[in-house]
Each structure stands twice: as C-alpha cells, then as structure tokens.
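Structure, all three chains, one model.
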Amino acid sequence: MRMLLAVALLLALLPFGLPPYAMTLLTEALIMGLFAMSLDLMVGYARLISFGHAAAYGLGAYTCGNILLHTDIPLPFAVLLAGLFSGIVAIGVAWVCTQATGVSFSMLTLAFAQLLYAVAFKWTPVTGASDGLAGIPRSPGPFGVTWFATKSGFYYLTMACLIGGFLFARALVRSPFGAVLRGIRENEAKTLSLGYNTRLYKIAVVAASYMLGGLAGALYAPFAGFANTELLFWLLSGQVLIMVIVGGTGTLVGPILGAVFFLFVQQQLSTYTDSWALFFGVIFIGFVLFAPEGILGLARRWTRAH
Amino acid sequence: MDVSAFLVTQSLNALSQAALLFFLGCGLTLIFGIMRIVNFAHGAFFMLGAYVGWSAVGLTGSFWAALLFAPILVGGFGAAFEMGLLRRLYGRDGHAFLMVTFGLTLIMGEAIRLIWGVNALQVEIPKLLSGIVFILDEPFPIYRLFLAGAGIVVAIGIWQFLERTRLGLLIRATSQNAEMVHALGTDVRLVRSAVFGIGCGLAGIGGVLAAPMVTASLGMAPNAVIDTFVIVIIGGMGSFLGSMIGAVLVAFVQVFGSYFFPDFAMSFMYLIMATILVFRPGGLLGKEA
Amino acid sequence: MSLLELQGLTKRYGGIVAVNDVTMAVEEGEVRAVIGPNGAGKTSLFHLITGVVKPTVGEIHFGGHRVSAMPAFGRCQLGMSRTFQITALFPEMSARENTRLAAQARDPKRWLPLGGGGVFAEAARRGDAALERLGLTHVAERPAGLLSHGDQRLLEVAMALAQQPRLLLMDEPTQGLSVEETAQAVDVLAGLFAGGGLTVLLVEHDMEVVFRLATKMTVLHRGTVIADGDPDSVKADPVVQDAYLGGYA
C-alpha cells in the first residue's frame, strides 16, 4: 500500500518536471499500461491466452469516439461508459470463445477481433470505414469543467483510470473469485470437479478484462483525437500480449512495466532505425526463451541474489 | 450471363482460391499434428515464398525454376528455425510456441522489408499459363485453372506421401504416439524438423503461386495466417482431410460471399467458424475439443 | 430412500455396451466398493455417477434429486465430492490453499469478486480441519506438487473432506502407489472410515484394499451387476468366484 501511494505521488508530480512531448509519451504509456494490465487478468490469472485483445481496445475507442462526437456526455463519463460497453459485449464474445480451450480459444479471440476489424471497415456511419473517426473532441467534464481537455488534466484523468483499474483488478484477483481463477489456471478439470462452474468464471474474467481494456481504448480516442481500424488490428493484439509476457504475467504490475518498456524502447529504437519491430521480435523471443517470468520476475530474481 | 456458366466459373475461381489456402492449411495442420504447436509465422513463410519467388524469377528468368527453388529455401529456413530455436521449447506450454513464432513473424516482416523494400512486387505469369480460355462462353484466366489443378495434384501427392513412404508413415505414427516412435529407435527430433520444414515449404509453394495473382507485398503475412487458422480450425487441428475441407469451404464462402454480399464477405468466414466451433469444439474432423 | 440410487443405468459407446442395466443403491453411512475385473465397466459407472458422461438409458437419483442430466459441478453442489484415479491437485498452491479452495466451493458466496475475507476464513478453517484428519498438518505450507505420492493422494482426500460431502466418491484410491505407500494410505483411510459419519463409494481393483475398507460390495462383470451385499457373502458367492475372484477367497 505504501509502495502504491509512493508511485501515485510520483506519477502525480511528474507533470511539473517534464517537457510537453514527454507528457504525451507518458500519457500514452499509462493508457497502454492499463490495456496490458487488463489482458493480464485473462492471461496471468486464468491462463486464457487472448490473441484478440485489440477487440476490447477498439470497442472502447470507437464507442467513446461516437459518444464524444454525437452527445454532450462529459468526457470522464463517456470514457467509463465506453469501458462498460466493451465489458458487456465481452460477455457474448466469451460465451462463444469459452466453448473452446487452449490454442483454439486463442484463435477464436483472434477471429472475433478480426471480425470487428472487418465490420469497422464497412460500417461507415459508425466507424468512418478506412478513414476512421477524426476530430474526436475532449468535451468538457461535468459542470462545464474544461480542465480535462488540457494536457495535464487529461494526464491526471488517465492516471486516475489506471490506478482505479489497478485497485479493481487487484481486489478481483485477491477475492474468492480470484482464488477460483487461480484454480482454473493450475487445473481446470479439478476446479470443475470441486463444484465450480468454471465456464461462468471464465466468462466473468473475460468481461472484466474487456471492461478495463475498453477503458484504455476509450481513453485513447480523445487522447489521439481519432480512432481507426488499426486499433482493432491483430498486430495490436500481438503487441499487447508481448507487453504482458515481457513484463511478467500474473502480476498486474509487470504488464504495466512491460507497456512502459515497450513504448520507451520503441521510441528509442525508432530514432535510430525504422526497423524497430525487428529488434522487438528478437527481444520478445529472448524473453520467452530465457526469462519467461518477465521483467518483474527478473527483478525479483536479481534482488534475491543480491 | 447464364446461370450455369456463372456457377461453373465462380466455382473454378473458388477452387483456385482453395488451392492456395490448402497449401497453407495442410502445412499448418501437419505441423500441429506432429508437434502440437501452432506456427503463427506460417503466413510469414508464405510471404517469404512470394518474395524469394520474385527474386528467383528475376535471376533465372523462369517461373518454374522459382517454383522449385523458393519452397526448398523457405522449407530449409523453417527447418533451421525449428532446430535452432523451437527445439529448446519442447515440454513448455503450447503458448510459448505461439509467442516465439509471433516474434519470428515480426522479425521476418521487417527483414523482408529491408531486403525487398516496401513496394509490392509483380511476378509475371509464365507465358504458357497467361491468357484466358472460354468456359461455357465465359472467359476464365488459365492461371487460375492451373492453380486449381496444382492444388489437386499436391493434395494427392501429400496424401500418397503420407500413406506410402517411410517418412510419411513415421509422421503419422509420431502424431499418434511420439514416445512410442522414439522408443522404437527413431529420432523423433529429426521427424519434427522435417515436418516443420515440409510445412513451411508448402507455405512457400503457396507464396510463389500466389505472387502472380496478388503481387508480393508486406500485407500478405497477416491475411494469410488468419485465413489459414480459420480453415484449420474449421477442419479440425491436425486433420489433413479437415484442412482440405476447410480450404474449400472458406474459398467458396469468400468467392460467392463477395459476389452476393460484398460488404459482409469477410465476416461470413468468421461466423461460419464460430458456428462450427460452438457445435463441434474440435472442428469438423478434429479429435479434441 | 437411499442416498444414491441408480436405476436401469446403461451406457453405450457406439456398439459397445460399457454399463448394462445397472441398478444399485448406496445407503447413508456405508462404505461401498464397486469391484470387477478390467473392462467390467467400473470407470464408466464412476463417470456416470460423477456426471462426466451422461447415461444412454436410466436414471440417477442423489439425495432425492434426479441428477441424470445434471452437469458435474451441479452434482458437487448437491454434496458429491470425488477423487481422481490419477491424482489431481493444484501443484503450485500449498496444501492448505488446496483444501481451502475445495472448501470454498461449498460456500454460497464462493464467487465474491471483491473482499471475501469471511469466505476465506471459513474455508481455511474447514480445510485445516480436513488436513488434520488426514495427518497432513505438518506439510500444510508445502506446495502440493512437491509432496510425496502418498501425501498427494491423501491431500486429494482431504480436499474432498473439506467439502463436508454427503457422498465421497473415490476412483482407485491406491492406484499408482508403491506397496508401502498403499499400506500407509489404507491405514489412514481405514481410520477415517472407522470414525463414522462418512458415506463412501469407491472403485478399486486391489482386493486386499477392498476387504479392509468396504462394508458393502457391488460386483460388476461385463457392465452388469452380478453380486451385491456384505463382503463375506460376496466372497462366498459362487457366481463371483467363477467370474472374478478366482482362487482368492
């Protein structure tokens, strides 16, 4: 708890010492962190390896974009509503996907994300097709507060979502519900035989994961001012999975670090080379082969050794 | 246009499409059958086949030489990857393979961009196969006819290979019970490398054959890998016959779907897959759920 | 009414009849063993009772409920707890966490997504009591995957007991154990059953184990019940001797 407060304080103070471009990068990192953490709920706690988590992100982004473009709903509420919508859609998705297990589950989630991708290309009134939604405004907050529209105001909104999302996710994994998820992760057949309806638990955790992932996407739309089909593309699903694995699964904090690491390295590499994806592939394979426990696990191993 | 001519030409069209999908799907399913791993890089090997094919045509001036060399090179690269990296992962969770091959996809995509550039590369249709024929008075490209034929020939070839040859027998046996094959004194590791190479080589053939139709481009890999997964999941992971059925089904849905409902053609494929999985979680001919 | 009643239960796989018109009952308080040679249909019968497979024909009643078509987890919620032929545990969790998760399954608030301190405390209490009964308290904090084979077997029984089951179903409780481990496990189980209060249905092929533990026996042969009764009367039954026991009795 003290650690959490310290990190929150540090994050809250950062805007006072950082140049604007770094603030933009940091905001994006926090959004990605929230997105990666949401995937960890599935991957790290129930071993539901989703290859289509961009679906959650894109759903959130398009929903929030439409709310902001067409209604007067204040920005923070629009973001929350979009996250909630993503979570509700996830119930249907999960109902289908949990018919299968293992690698088939992964591929079904991928297929669903691609289905959304295909739909987004054609449903012009809602998604703007290949042009996407542009000019998404940061509408005023409740009571006409315009602070959220500023760079630092939006940063604090993002930070609040990340910390709120983290507290929610942590409470979830530490609850009786979370204990059942852990059972599913280690031995699903046994969990079922103890009398748990494991499929319902899996559907619930997918919904929670999509809700937080949708929240991240919902933040991205007003952050970037646009939403396009890239946000539903399989490449994003793969990237966020990399962040989770590289950061360390089943830790919630690890994937956030993974996302920050990913964006930072991408930023650094892209100033030297266009081929940052090449190095990313190498780094990722290296982690899977030699450090499957991720950055956080490496850090723990290192602290124990010293 | 008269209905029967329409049906015949569109069906042939779908069959040529099915042939390409089949080259991808049967490789993926063979690999899965033997190693229980999913090769996410399968689309990247397909793409590599197209690019290597382009270069081989440029160097030798012959499409047929390219069709021979490119798959060998792509298959060799696949086998080397299996021996160098994947081999370290046996015994790990199946998702480790998915992740490593995803990493490989990123690497190959970038490497291909660095070597061949970002522009799509056109491969000429060989003279023998260019032009059109008239089927029931409707014009139809000869090359597509050739593709459909090649698909059927290769399908029969692989089937005979699995049934008749010693390696084919070993492959079937290994997919049934790897430990037993190992205990009987065969180096299962070599069988695995061979299968991975063959599977990637098949994807390479698909890439060379696809290049004249769709050009070699960087977008090939993701599209191919997803279509491939769809057909393999529909047919049942690890089932050779299933991948054939899946390829034909998906190709017909794509071709006829995009004719009648151009806006929904892509969605159909996923809906069919989801429906099949709901009723048969292991796919049409799959064993496991 | 008996706790568990099977009426005319039949299971066919294609043309093969694994279980053929089985009618039997388990009374409250008895330890019943289902025995039979390999291929007699013991495992299929066990799967039918636990809900892993559904019967082709016939009915299963448990505690007055018709459960023939109920999924496995629903039957657990009515009070059936089972152990597996091949030990099934949560290997990375400690023994305590294993029994706690088992006990939690009986709590109406087992699914609470937030908080849940009360649920955990109650489940831990029941889980610890079960560990105690099986003499596993000294390994409670060790990861289940690192326990000896014998202890893993007992831990699985402890998990079932932590659920305070109305019926304990055991699939070959000594399968895969060495001779010494089997002897130890049988001692512990015999002590447990002697304490009373448990209703047990076990499937077992080791006759020595069966005669030490069971108070009632049902003999299966080619999917059909050929004898049912006290161990002594079953042992003496010429049909059973002919079909199965051979020179044992």
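The two ends of chain C are 33 Å apart (CA to CA).
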